[in-house]
Design brief:
With about 500 residues, the chain is of the alpha/beta class. It folds into three domains: about 230 residues, D-Maltodextrin-Binding Protein, domain 2, CATH 3.40.190; about 100 residues, D-Maltodextrin-Binding Protein, domain 2; about 120 residues, 60s Ribosomal Protein L30, Chain: A (2-Layer Sandwich). Helix 2 crosses helix 11. The protein is globular and about 80 Å long.
């Protein structure tokens, strides 16, 4: 072999080696990142995604950011405001679609069964925020309570967190199943939250259910107000990021980089809210149109960015019961009840906590402590958002909890107290009109106290959050004859009322 031929052979060998090193076995490749291209992440306009946006220094893929400098992955955020387009992009996958997409625990319970039936197995990989006022039912001045929604027109985007906030509020109200269904059947569905908001501003509907920044914009309608929001129900709506199972399996290093980078970005977002405002206004049209940085900054108060402690509580990284399972299961039951899905998916099929667990194992953190509320308001306060009547059985003349009573509390009261952690819970005992008031009023209060004691002991709630009332026979159910068998049965109930902090 002459020298020229030897040079050609060596050059060809080196070229083959270089080509080989852009494959998976060589780590960084393509654009110099783990995936070889930007990881595509679908989001909507919402202040809670600040952790990821700050980690990426905006929406566009770049290398001057936490994601690349600390975790060797470029990321591209894609704004998908219409849920149908979001679902299509996720089903398609990147680079033509998206690799990871936003969801909420309740939305995921509705969406996942359909994805699985179409062969798109997927899992939630992390929590990114809590809605803490960012989701709300905004109503006109004629609507003062959830019960006042009867006969009204409400705009929202179906099956989204907005829909869930309404469903949950209806289910935990004094409205009958018939009245709840009538409200749902009369909904005005829209393609995007900005359309639902505009229908309300144009007075085409009486109320709307939207999320920020559309809550702020909807309140521009004169006389409007927040009827219910996640400021009170602040453990109800949690945003999560979800990924396809095949992508998780093929690119675990990329998923790990994404999760870790987002948590790093969350720390920076908390430290530098002005940076969050700047990036939102530069990258999202809705925020840019608001023009006023102070107004944008105010929307940041409506969310809590989820750190590792929040993820520990949500996914049970510490080995304790995960809140995800409770929220996912409760939402799934509601969607089945309305006929939106035919069957529920097990929470274990809906999440993959391996990446969070790896981070937690290295740096374990305790769960967030329950917020301490100021002294409870007077027991006579009328400032309530909902009244949920619960049938809790007691033996005649007794206040001790039966096994059936405990099950009723577990099924109907515990999650209501958990999700409305920024509110007082007033537990009011009631009796029928048999026997004397002198006996029934203290008996009804003793029964209400037993309910509270059980919740505090089993679920470790702050006892200062509860208000105990004994009504005896003085508050019969409206519209029923208190002397009839039906009326007396309805009056032997416990009312669970949500009293917001004002």
């Amino acid at each position: 072999m002459n020298l020229r031929m030897l040079v050609k052979v060596v050059s060809l060998t080196l070229f083959i080696i270089v080509l080989a090193c852009v494959g998976p076995s060589c780590g960084l490749r393509g654009d110099g990142s783990l995936l070889g291209r930007p990881l595509r992440v679908g989001v909507v306009s919402w202040p809670g995604y600040a952790g990821g946006i700050v980690a990426n220094n905006g929406f566009k893929p770049n290398k001057e950011c936490i994601y690349f400098k600390n975790h060797k992955q470029t990321v591209e955020f894609v704004l998908l405001e219409v849920p149908a387009e979001r679902s299509q992009a996720f089903a398609k996958g990147g680079p033509g679609g998206v690799d990871i997409v936003w969801s909420t625990v309740d939305y995921w319970a509705n969406e996942l069964p359909g994805l699985i039936s179409n062969g798109v197995k997927s899992r939630a990989i992390m929590q990114v925020d809590w809605s803490r006022g960012g989701d709300a039912i905004v109503a006109d001045e004629s609507i003062k309570s959830i019960e006042d929604l009867k006969g009204k027109k409400i705009s929202l985007v179906m099956y989204t967190p907005s829909h869930w906030l309404l469903e949950y509020s209806l289910e935990n109200s004094g409205l009958s199943d018939y009245d709840q269904k009538a409200i749902i059947d009369n909904l005005v569905g829209k393609d995007a939250t900005l359309d639902a908001r505009q229908a309300f501003k144009d007075k085409q509907v009486d109320a709307t259910v939207v999320w920020e920044p559309d809550v702020t914009l909807a309140l521009e309608r004169p006389g409007s107000h927040k009827l219910v929001s996640t400021e009170t129900a602040n453990n109800l709506i949690a945003d999560v990021m979800v990924a396809r199972e095949d992508f998780i399996k093929d690119h675990p290093d990329v998923i790990k980089a994404f999760v870790h980078g987002w948590l790093d970005g969350t720390t920076e977002a908390v430290r530098n809210p002005d940076k969050v405002v700047q990036l939102l206004m530069e990258n999202e049209t809705l925020y840019g149109d608001m023009k006023d940085p102070k107004k944008v900054k105010d929307t940041l108060k409506t969310v809590k960015y989820a750190d590792l402690a929040d993820n520990t509580k949500m996914f049970g990284l510490d080995g304790k019961a995960p809140l995800f399972d409770e929220l996912f299961g409760t939402a799934g039951k509601a969607w089945v009840r309305r006929g939106y899905i035919t069957s529920q998916i097990s929470p274990d099929q809906a999440k993959d906590i391996a990446f969070l667990k790896e981070i937690y194992t290295v740096s374990p953190v305790p769960r967030p402590s329950e917020d301490r509320l100021p002294s409870p308001p007077p027991i006579t306060t009328t400032n309530i958002t909902s009244i949920k009547p619960v049938d809790i059985s007691f033996l005649p003349g007794k206040s001790d909890l039966t096994p059936e009573a405990k099950q009723a509390i577990d099924n109907n009261v515990a999650l209501l107290a958990e999700t409305n952690s920024n509110a007082y819970i007033r537990v009011s005992g009631n009796t029928d009109n048999t026997g004397t008031k002198a006996i029934n009023i203290p008996l009804s209060k003793a029964r209400a106290q037993k309910v509270v004691d059980y919740l505090v002991e089993k679920y470790k709630f702050n006892p200062g959050r509860f208000i105990v009332v004994g009504n005896g026979p003085d508050k019969p159910w409206p519209g029923l004859d208190k002397d009839s068998p039906e009326g007396r049965a309805k009056n032997r109930r416990t009312d669970v009322e949500v009293v917001p902090v004002r």
